[in-house]
Amino acid sequence: MTNTWPDNTVENYFQYKPSLALSLVALVLFFTVATVIAIQTYKYRPRCRFMWIVVFTGGLEVAGYISHIIAAETVNNSAYVSYLVFTILAPNFLALANYIAVGRVAEQLQLSGRFLNAKSIAAAFFIIDLICIGIQGAGSAILSSSLNNNGAASTSGETVVLIGLAIQLFFFSSFTLVAGYVYRLQQTQASNKVPGQVYVCLFVTIALITMRNVYRVIELAAGWSGKYNTNEKYFYCLDALPIFSAFCVYSLLHFGQYLQHTNGTPSGDASTSAVIVVTDSSSSMSRPREKSSSKLDQVKSALTFGPARKTNTNTAYPRFSDLV
Q1: Is the dihedral of CA 49, 53, 56, 57 positive or negative?
Q2: 3-state secondary structure of 307
Q3: Whole-angstrom Cα distance, residue 62 to residue 117?
Q4: Three-point CA angle 199, 202, 205, nearest 5°
Q5: Which conformational region is residue 170 in: left (phi greater than 0), alpha (psi within -120 to 50 degrees), or beta?
Q6: What is the pLDDT of residues 129-187, one digit of tens each?
Q7: CA atoms within 13 A on the CB side of 191
Q8: How far apart are CA 135 and CA 220, in angstroms?
Q9: Which of 116, 241, 251, 270 lies 20 to 30 Å from 306 when distance is taken between CA atoms?
Q10: Dihedral sign, CA of 198, 94, 203, 175?
Q11: What are the helix and strand counts (H, E) for the chain?
Q12: Rg (Cα) of the chain, in Å, rounded?
């Protein structure tokens, strides 16, 4: 599509006339849902610290739409660049939360699949996603630095961002198979079950994030002046709406409501209690020791019969989620 907007204008940067009303609505919606998720994550914080990644992503989305509003009202290269960087990079962080969630689910179920190591899988996808985000960040920097008053951008920047998105899309699709594998193992091997809401949240958000990533790949493949980049409706329908819907799912089916605490028990459950067992000299049977009438008797009992028997047999395993 040929750019027909006058040089050094808002329309020439966006390559369309941006809607201030839509930007304001998106800003309010993302701010609201991010705030709700932040409150929920604080409430369930022992179980789902990794959900702060989703809150962080919401903050980036809010910053992106603030930049969009500024860039839509005045010719401001910095604001437009910020809008580009935030809206391209922000949704990619949501995948990190899903990677950790699947690792936590597999760990909670104590699954024993031959090809499944919860910690390794979560760590591998986590690192790959960070690399893809770095590639897209570098491409966004090239893209934004090449912008001029005519709204033209370097094709090399587009190519770098496209490569980062394509790699991420491939691995995110592979991760869908891993999530499905975990669900299948739960049905056949796990002695306990994770509530179905966890899987609904996982698979719905995976679908929404994938939809957005496919759109971004097609948009960049079509070129800076292609129809997808020069029409605002595609951005709101295929980027903003799917990501906002994902945030709503994260809020309605917050992982903190269903995942166990990292010590293997739901947060807030009753704590363990110890019972001191002693042996009477006149009997071979054990009985609970009665409350001593004096401090001296308690000391003598401890010296005579040794330390109390441990009743807590829970085994602590290293968790990748502890890093978040």
Answers
A1: negative
A2: coil
A3: 36
A4: 140
A5: alpha
A6: 889 888 888 887 777 776 654 455 567 778 888 888 899 889 888 888 888 888 887 77
A7: 2
A8: 15
A9: 270
A10: negative
A11: 11, 2
A12: 27
Is the sign of the CA dihedral 161, 162, 168, 169 positive or negative?
positive
Strand partners, 280: none
Q: Are 139 and 160 in contact (CB under 8 A)?
A: yes
Position 33: which residue type? Answer: V
Report d(CA 179, CA 171) in Å as an integer: 12
Extract the tokens encoding 189: 């091997």
Closest CA to 277 of 311, 318, 247: 311
Structure token digits, residue 24: 């304001």
Which H or E element spans position 279?
strand 277-279
Q: Is the dihedral of CA 217, 123, 243, 58 positive or negative?
A: negative
- With CA atoms as reference, report the closest residue to 185 among 115, 248, 237: 115
CA distance 10 to 19: 11
Query: Angle 8-13-17 (CA atoms, 0-180°, nearest 5)?
Result: 105
Cα separations in angstroms, 114 against 100, 140, 164, 185, 292: 20, 40, 31, 11, 54
CA distance 263 to 83: 41
Grouping H, G, I as helix, E, B as strand and the rest as coil, residue 193 is coil
Q: Residues of 157-173 as b/e, b for ≥16 C-beta within 10 angstroms?
A: bbebbbbbbbbbbebbe
pLDDT in tens, 66-109: 999 998 888 888 888 889 889 988 998 999 899 889 888 887 87
CA angle 224, 226, 227 (to 5 degrees): 135
C-alpha torsion 200→98→119→194, nearest 10: -20
- Tokens matching residue 181: 């594998």
More confident position, 38 or 13: 38
* Residue 130 amino acid letter: L
